[in-house]
Amino acid sequence: MRTLLSTIxxxxxxxxxxxxAARLERQSDRRGLPALDPGPQAVIHACTAxxxxxxxxxxxxxxxxxxxYSLLTGWSSSYPETTGYIIxxxxxxxxxxxxxxxxxxxxxxxxxxxxIQFPEGGYQGGKIDSTxxxxxxxxxxxxxxxxxxxxxxxxxxxxxxxxxxASWLRDSQDADGCWRRHPTPxxxxxxxxxxxxxxxxxxxxxxxxxxxxxxxxxxxxVDWALTxxxxxxWFDANCLDNPQLPxxxxxxxxxxxxxxxxxxxxxxxLLDAAVRTGTGIAGAVAADGYLAGRLGPDFQxxxxxxxxxxxxxNAHCLFLLYRLTGERRYLDAGRRLNRYVRRAxxxxxxxxxxxxxxxxxxxxxxxxxxxxxxxxxxxxxxxNLLELELEAGDA
Length: 395
What we know:
Mean pLDDT: 95
Shape: globular
Strand order of the largest sheet: 2-1-7
Largest sheet: 3 strands, antiparallel
Radius of gyration: 19 Å
Strand content: under 5%
Structural class: mainly alpha
């Protein structure tokens, strides 16, 4: 569905006449990436400021973070799903820098997430003003990451909401570990292997409040997802809209969930599975850091653009694999991915773009065309923070 909508936008927008900012961005991207890599520190700073602007400029003005800035329509309303997992990143930055303003931003996001929770514990899909407004497994799992981080950082004020979300996920799971009862209405139907990223939310809730079976439920999902993994590490049933050519974004979700399952359970088979997927991704990264936005069953390119979100996510996962295995190829591929994404980030451009990370490079690729995405900025920060940590460790 997302691809179809992007195709329609690409077809109709030029006929209607692109706004000057969109036209200029497309022209710039078609000339290729800038040669300059601003470096991790500059990009972390710029992306953090952009996320602050997205919170301030959300059209719903509620404490959540605007889903995106579109070069066609401007700032959007707040997006519960990604606001949820932006929270741990903002808390980590606040703790790293001792920045009270960032702690305040995280608390506003948390308070909003508590306020919009359904009574049974779930959370809606889509933006806050999207319809239908129904509880969705995936979105609930992502907000659970934020609630668990909120409990760890700020105490019991967020514990009740965390327990309701985690219990709802635990109790709505099918016997085989897959979640099927509350799918998102904003993606194509079918089982989703990338809901290992939901399982991660349960692992974090279990760490914060053990003894409720949250982690065991998360592991059941991961074990189910492994039945969809091929011997080379590629996953079936692992995309929003095209299971034969999944986005690197959802591949990154699946891989991160595997890694977090291993971190939670210390099971060798989970690390082996993550190594298979990570090896396939690392082999698909070009010398300049380009990674096609979609990958086929042999990890071959399936798109002519980069999904910058997926590139940042997979860089982070490859760094985690390097930590776990000591294999230099993962470190090198992660660094190349990070450099590519950093070169796509403007740190001194117009306000709407400064520190923003586009859905696609070039900007008219079919993943969230014409837009700077809040989750892309979040993953970019995460990957660059970990790169700096690894550099400090090597030093």
